[in-house]
Amino acid sequence: MKEFKFSKIGQKLTSSIIRELLKDVNIPGMISFGGGVPDPKTFPRYKLSEVTKEVLENEFSFSLQYGPTEGDAILKKSYINFLRKNEGIEGLTEDNLLITVGSQSALYLLSTTLLDSDSKYFVSKPVYLGAASAFSMNSMNHIDLPLTEDGINTDFLEEKLLELDENGEISKVRFIYVIPNFHNPAGVTLNLERRKKIIELAEKYDLLIIEDDPYGDLRYEGEGVPSMFKLAGKDRVVMLKTFSKILSPGMRLGFVIGHETLLRKLVLAKQAVDLCTPSLTQRIAGRFLEKYDLKELLKPTIDIYRRKKDLMLKELEENFADIKGTYWTRPQGGLFIWLTLPEGFDTMEMMDLGKKNGILFIPGTAFSISGGCDNSMRLSFCLPSEEDIVEGVRRLKKTVVEYGKEKGLL
Ligand SMILES: Cc1ncc(COP(=O)(O)O)c(C=O)c1O
């Protein structure tokens, strides 16, 4: 094999378990609870196709051209209105918004502009792998925060911060990374009290909060909780939103909402990465938002996902209630359920048996930077059909029972 002279970062890059696993998705008969990709049936393709035709024919001098690094003013205006109407966020100007190539690239830009190799930052355990990858490009010094049903354990955060302060290391801490709604991979939501506690601690130690919220608009039941951005404002919080789960991930549109000084830095970093987010998809989305009420259009999508989520929960109840020590999260929205098996189960090792039985899931260790989560797995209910959810949970049960018996755990 040809050897190349890779940089230290280049050498660190290895293939992700999720990507490896998704290779098996196309095996005939395989049911996948793996990837967190939306159901294509939910894409408003005819409406998008109409808007695209207009944007290409009538606005080609913008939509087929390079655009401003900050993003398309038309989309910014529509999105600021969207945030005002749906999240009650007032007072934003164009300078408080940057449009990125999905929120993944925003995570990368934040990593580049905020982290030195000795910087520390807080992430949840389990963690969203994409954020962990983006942050660890610049610093490996993450601090894990355990998750509970109500989100990040804030007592633990408080203790850690106190410890860092006493050790004289607090100035190295750059941010707390939070997925407030329907966490990927855990499915849990940070309650209001804990949101306020995190803000209080961030104020005390002068830390930035990165609020990554791709799933907040996909609420299937229960009361919405105000965003941390709304609670604490742009001096303390930078919020990431995306159209990937509510319009189309293929359009690759993400939004950074934050302080103009921070955003100006991100813009400079973005110039080195991609010059600008595609003008075409931005203008299509901008005109789409002018023409349609996206929140209203989401209602049938929410109905589809709610049904699938309820079905998976029901099947888990029916199939796993008799395996003592097994529990799972009950999300009120989003795309994921986090299932934990009794101690001793190793879901990574169990994957081969799962594949043999025609079922894919993502093992818990894939979501942990420093090991652990061995007996957990992420189950996604958004893509499989209802019949596949029923059959898939049965195959999962079969796999767990076979593995448990083989290892003497059941
Ligand atoms: C928590 C979280 N952040 C960011 C992303 C990246 O989304 P995108 O780049 O498609 O906007 C995802 C995608 O699954 C996610 O779950």
- Return the domain count: 2
CATH homologous superfamily grouping of the largest domain: Type I PLP-dependent aspartate aminotransferase-like (Major domain)
CATH architecture of the largest domain: 3-Layer(aba) Sandwich
**Lateral strand order in the biggest sheet:** 2-9-8-7-6-3-4-5
The percentage helix is 40-55%
Q: What series of H and E elements makes up the topology?
A: HHEHHHEHEHEEHEHEHEEHHHEEHEEEH
Based on DSSP secondary structure assignment, what is the total number of beta strands? 14
Major sheet details: 8 strands, mixed
Bound molecules: pyridoxal-5'-phosphate
Distance between the termini: 45 Å
Q: Which stretches are poorly predicted, pLDDT < 50 over at least 5 residues?
A: none
Classify the beta-strand content into a percent band.
5-15%
**Count of helical regions:** 15
CATH topology of the largest domain: Aspartate Aminotransferase, domain 2
Structural class of the helices, strands and pairings?
Answer: alpha/beta
Using the alpha-carbon principal axes, give the shape: globular
Mean pLDDT: 96
List the helices and strands and how they pair.
Elements: H1 8-12, H2 17-22, E1 31-32, H3 45-58, H4 60-63, H5 73-87, E2 97-101, H6 102-114, E3 120-125, H7 129-136, E4 142-148, E5 151-152, H8 154-166, E6 173-178, H9 192-205, E7 208-212, H10 228-232, E8 237-242, E9 253-257, H11 260-273, H12 279-291, H13 294-320, E10 327-328, E11 336-340, H14 347-356, E12 359-360, E13 362-363, E14 376-380, H15 386-406
Helix pairs in contact: 3-12, 5-12, 6-7, 6-11, 8-9, 13-15
Pyridoxal-5'-phosphate is lined by residues 36, 102-104, 128, 130, 179, 184, 212, 214, 242, 244, 249, 254.
